Amino acid sequence: MSIDNLSQLQDTPSWQSRKTNVICVGVIQETPDVKTFQFQSKEPQLFHFKPGQFIGIQLEIDGEKHNRSYTIASSPSRPHILELTIKKEKGGSVSPWLHKNIVEGSEVELRGPAGRFNCFDIPSKKVLLVSAGSGITPMMSMARFWTDTDPNKEIQFLNWARGVEDIIFRRELSLIDFKNKNFQLEVFCTQPGLSENWLGKRGRINTRLLSDMVTDLDERMVFCCGPDGFMQQVKTCLKELGFNMDNYHDETFDPGGKKKAKLEQQEKELKEAPQEIIPIGPFNLSLKRSNKRVVIEEDEILLEKLESEGVNIDTGCRAGNCGACMVKKISGETVSQNDIGLQDSEKEQGYILTCTTSLKSDVELDL
């Protein structure tokens, strides 16, 4: 995409398609095993999304299809470039391929954006961002956005890395900290090497550290992202400090709060309800727009069946949390193990999440 004058800039459409063909326009080596890939749309387009959201990538590697989700690291306040910061996972199949094969000029198809973990839908005056490792990417999107658009936002950012060479966005974080008077940054290294000469803070998160570092914790909205064990430890510390967990948000989309309790109550009521005589399948699954019909067993997960039939569909968490794989049900009966990734209005319109849904009758989908 090339924009050469102001009139072209003003006429550039916003990102609306769930499938977007993009071209890599830059690759940044952030750390030895982390790269940032910069993309522009093939057709002039502004990337508008909510900081914290993710996109999906579908790739075919050695004849096998792979779906992966990656959080957007860039900010919608700089909408001409979309950045994905991706760690090369040891033993992985997709991230090593991306690191090896995506270079300037490479073309890929992105799906999204999606995800309910974002700072647009959660109003706040003062925030605490907590991250570890590659979990820094949604935090960075939020930090960049607020720095560009809300200079009065009070942001405290605590970030953990293994060693100095593993600190993602180290230079940019220091620059934001220098230029933004309301941005407070602290980086911790858990295992800095002897040769790294690290003069900053060390150690893992604990209750005392959190209370000492964030003296006004109860006044802040907390956004957290990192490995599961790290996020669990953050939640444990917050609970021990008496923090209101309604003000805690992480990329699991439901930190064990009201939505989870509601789901458990629904499951309990379903078990206690009088049992009906229910057809046991197999059932016919009709795809209206694809003009396709397949046979599906009662215990088969809808998404897995669709993928096995070669039907392209957006995917994300594959656990009913993010909403990326939702499709509209035209007719028929289904049951979902978890659909907290859907808003009530979407459920009323007939949308279901294919990753946690199975059939209870013949079904037709708008797909």
Could you describe the 3D structure shown?
There is one protein chain. Helix content is 23%, strand content 30%. The chain folds into three domains: 6-114, Elongation Factor Tu (Ef-tu), domain 3 (Beta Barrel); 126-252, Rossmann fold; 283-365, Roll (Ubiquitin-like (UB roll)), CATH 3.10.20.30. Residues 5-9 and 253-260 have low confidence and may be disordered. With 367 residues, it is of the alpha/beta class.
Helix and strand string, N-terminal first? HEEEEEHEEHEHEEHEHEHEEHEEHEEE
Q: Assign the CATH architecture of the largest domain.
A: 3-Layer(aba) Sandwich
CATH level 4 superfamily of the largest domain? Nucleotide-binding domain of ferredoxin-NADP reductase (FNR) module
Mean pLDDT: 86
SS strand fraction: 25-35%
> SS-based structural class?
alpha/beta
Total count of strands: 19
Give the class-level CATH name of the largest domain. Alpha Beta
Largest sheet: 6 strands, antiparallel
Structural domain tally: 3
Shape summary = globular
Distance between termini?
30 Å
Helix content: 10-25%
**Cα radius of gyration in angstroms:** 22 Å
Strand order, biggest sheet? 4-3-6-1-2-5
- Report the uncertain regions: 5-9, 253-260
Number of helices: 9
Question: In CATH terms, what is the fold-level topology of the largest domain?
Answer: Rossmann fold
